[in-house]
Write a structure and sequence with these properties.
Protein name (chains A, B): L-fuconate dehydratase
Catalytic activity (chains A, B): L-fuconate = 2-dehydro-3-deoxy-L-fuconate + H2O
Oligomer: homodimer
CATH class of the largest domain in chain A: Alpha Beta
Cofactor (chains A, B): Mg(2+)
EC number (chains A, B): 4.2.1.68
Structural class of chain A: alpha/beta
Number of helices of chain A: 18
Shape of chain A: globular
CATH architecture of the largest domain in chain A: Alpha-Beta Barrel
Number of strands of chain A: 12
Largest sheet of chain A: 9 strands, mixed
Pfam family, one (chains A, B): MR_MLE_C
Chain lengths: 440, 440
């Protein structure tokens, strides 16, 4: 019997705010970070890595919550844990002393995401399969037993979920072949951060098109003249055929969002992302009513706290592009229910990515969505940001503007030992060097 | 100039789970706790106390977040801080490294509540007034400048808020006189915790009526036969004229909630509280549609994460009784906007209380609501639970089933030094004794 002998926790931070990477209308000092854990077993070759993405000082708080949740797994039988990750998830969700702090949202939910990401990584490694394949190989009834469908039965029952997954199985091989050949289309946000100069914006837009991207996203929400000028620059560089999306990072109230987006419609905008509070289902519906006549869709979900929020966004017809976050929803157990609901309401899931390692996880999730849940791939596009991948043992592979199928066993969540040594906070060698530099 | 010289943080926990106090359909081991802080100044007679209510191990995580938020106030000028608590609130909300962990929800929001509760306590102490009076004395335009109205302008603008507050000012003296004479009606939950025996339930219901309560609340959501039997016992003891409310603590999905509540309607139920996920605005609307024809209203808000959720509950006509929580919403800055929106939609605010110190804070909030915001008092009733008040320097005063006007300066948030010594976790003397007892 293999058991979990210990759990390693690492506070990993990168000084991304130095270069204005990640700057937007709300986030000014975004030091991309990961609250990282590793489930260690008494078999040296078997372990599970997971994390949630945070920013700077937020990492402390997440790690404390991860510790409070995960420690119960020390001493557990790995075979049992991996056979039934849904049981582990339910155990974490039922911790009534931590439930009060949510429930199902904020720090304790991010922590649950991190821990369950590690459990799923462990389960897939143990099976010797990349996670997307591990999931797609599961019998629908087994997969559904591992999902969190609580509070969803007015939209999705377990029987319905099983039937939906069964129906897609016939297309499995053909879809995997398609992914092997073409991958899953992605778009780049790297071009359009708010802190970049016009010259840098122009250069990055040109480079993105040359690299094969068919979608470009720009941050908006500063002053209206800047937004107008920057969209003009981008559209003139990329031409009329490439899709242009804009992202306001929650800066506006509802009436202001409608007005500001309508004013930018003449640039031919595919979607407005996070126009207002991520919690405002009815507000997103009002915004959708205001901008859909201009041919613009509403995208949200990066801060979508849980499955109940996504249920409502879909019920209210408040969203056109469903942007799940792989480290905010509580891992596979909660993400697949959202994929299923989106399928039922015929809305494309276009995952949020970037940060630290979100692209690595998303490169599995989009494959699961396409192969096992949603089918038709047209109009679907996942976010990709080209930074920090060098820290991952199994980085996502992007080719000609598409995520390629991950091949290594696990959830691609393992960070290189060298990167942990260099960037662990505050003791990492790179952070020590920076402190020395600041003192001289 | 008086400045803040340090901040004391205390992890305070009480072993309330021993006696099944606080047991309900979801919370099985509710050790009531407070993540407590005290803003210390260089004037020994001036300080500010605040806390957020949590349960057991959740306290660690909240304290870490409170520390991360509050430390910036060390060295600040007390006069400036107290003149403009809205500025302090906005500064905490704008911390972009912590914002990612919410935004406006979960641990970081609970922490903001604790810190701002301490700031408001400090401001009221400095003015030598109980907080309710400090607030009611503020010019409407000044008060509104201190509120967080972000994301609310589709329902409530600053100008509208000022006008609403101005309109109520003429009734100020008459309402204060009324409160001095009669207080603000409350109801008791102490009778109906799920872990209590039928005999204890019967005895506590009888005692509550004898003490003058006109409303009794029971926990439901176990098996249907138990709910039916317990409601029968309660109704037979309290007679037909006293209001009976039920609280499911989020145990049901939407269709089940409707069915289960309809089955209990023959006991003449005033409200069903927390029938499902607290995040499910549209679900609460469906439940309201299902139970209102039976004369039952929907109550929710104890886990209502922020003002945007309450905005939607009101917009969707999904709630009949608005149950704000004084330590989950981010203090006065966010609570008064919810009171104003409820007034606009003509829904009574019936605050959640209990836990540790929630009644103390609520005894100010209901007075502010009645005197400055909502006016007519009919149909309004605030929760009261009779435990842990002995730990407070200025405990709330309840007489004949009504909260009486607090008279001591501040927000009644200060915990006795002796209680901190005894119940601080893990070093408190009472906890040490219990560990010794467990070891013998």
């Amino acid at each position: 019997m293999t058991i979990i002998t210990s759990i390693e926790f690492v506070d990993l931070r990168f000084p991304t705010s130095d270069s204005h990477d990640g700057s937007d209308a709300v986030n000014k000092d975004a030091d991309y970070s990961a609250a990282y854990l590793r489930l260690v077993t008494d078999d040296d070759s078997l372990y599970g890595c997971g994390f949630t993405f945070t920013i700077g000082r937020g990492n402390d708080i997440c790690l404390q919550a991860i510790d409070a949740l995960a420690n119960r797994f020390i001493g557990r039988d790995v075979t049992e844990l991996c056979a039934n990750p849904g049981e582990a998830y339910r155990e974490l969700a039922a911790d009534s002393q931590l439930r009060w702090l949510g429930p199902d949202k904020g720090v304790v939910h991010l922590a649950r995401a991190a821990v369950m990401n590690a459990v799923w990584d462990l389960a897939a490694r143990r099976a010797g399969l990349p996670l997307w394949q591990f999931i797609c190989d599961m019998e629908p009834v087994t997969l559904v037993a591992n999902l969190d469908l609580s509070y969803l039965s007015d939209v999705l029952t377990a029987d319905e979920a099983v039937a939906m997954l069964e129906e897609q199985r016939q297309h499995r091989e053909e879809r995997i072949s398609n992914l092997q050949a073409n991958g899953f289309q992605c778009y780049t946000t790297s071009a359009g951060w708010l802190g970049y100069s016009d010259e840098k914006l122009e250069r990055l837009c040109r480079e993105a098109v040359e690299e094969g991207y068919r979608h470009i996203k720009l941050k908006v929400g500063g002053n209206p003249e800047d937004d107008e000028r920057r969209l003009g620059i981008a559209r003139s560089v990329i031409g009329p055929d490439i899709s242009l999306m804009i992202d306001a990072n929650q800066i506006w109230d509802v009436p202001e969002a409608i007005e500001r987006v309508q004013a930018l419609a003449h640039h031919n905008v595919l979607w407005i992302e996070e126009p207002t509070s991520p919690d405002d289902v009815l507000g997103h519906r009002s915004i959708a009513d205001g901008v859909r006549p201009e041919g613009i869709g509403v995208a949200t979900g990066e801060h979508g706290m849980n499955r109940v929020l996504f249920k409502q966004l879909l019920q209210a017809d408040a969203v056109d592009f469903v942007q799940i976050d792989s480290c905010r929803l509580a891992s596979i157990n909660e993400i697949i229910p959202v994929l299923l609901m989106a399928k039922k309401f015929a809305k494309p899931v276009c995952p949020h990515a970037g940060g630290v390692g979100l692209c690595e996880l998303v490169s599995h999730l989009v494959m699961i969505d396409y192969v096992a849940v949603s089918g038709p791939i047209e109009g679907r596009v996942a976010e990709y940001v080209d930074h920090l991948h060098e820290h991952f043992v199994d980085p996502c592979i992007v080719s000609k503007g598409a995520y390629m199928l991950p091949e290594a066993p696990g959830y691609s969540a393992e960070i290189k030992a060298e990167s942990l040594t260099r960037w662990a906070w505050p003791e990492g060698t790179e952070w020590a060097k920076r402190r020395e530099g600041a003192n001289t």
